[in-house]
Amino acid sequence: MAYLERLQETILTPISGALGQTTVTYGFTSFELLRYIKKNSPGDMAPDIDQHAAMELNSRNNHICKRDGAACDILVEGYEHQMHLVAKFICKELQFDRLYFYGKCRPLHVSVGPEESKYALIRMPNTRGVRVNSKSATDDATIRLFEHL
Question: What pLDDT digit, counting tens, does each position of 43-69 carry?
């Protein structure tokens, strides 16, 4: 629970205060929800590393995600077509673990965790529509990822 509270206090509240109302489009994933998603709509997900499960345990009493922390995907009112500006704000102003950018008009994934690696990754669809990893950076270099989008 501590990481979910930290996500709220260090990411969601500052974004809402500086940019506008923030909507969580995908949040905490319990073991039961993960089982349901895998069965009904597996798609492009990586529960063992994406931090949506926070510290949740699976049926074998192991952490679902091997990274500690918590994550959510968000949209910010008024920035629905400019999410690169939200990503840039996060990279410049906030302490985070991971940020995954899927496009200017898509929710963005942000997490907190013990590493606070400040790692940002751009994942864009290829010609077949499958999201693939593109550019990435850490620390202060993350801001430059979003300057020319």
Answer: 666 666 678 778 877 788 888 778 889
Contact predicate 115/96, CB 8 Å: no
The DSSP code for 48 is: T
**Residue 99 gets which letter from DSSP?**
E
Whole-angstrom distance, CA of residue 38 vs CA of residue 43: 8
CB 146, CB 85: distance < 8 Å: yes
Give residues with Cβ within 8 angstroms of 64, minimum separation 6. Answer: 29, 31, 34, 47, 48, 53, 56, 57, 58
What pairs with residue 137 in β-bridges?
120
Predicted TM-score of the model (pTM): 0.87
- Residues 111, 96 contacting (CB under 8 angstroms): yes
Q: CA separation (Å) from 110 to 59, 72, 75, 78?
A: 26, 6, 11, 19
| pLDDT (tens digit per residue) in 2-30 | 999 999 999 999 999 999 999 999 888 77
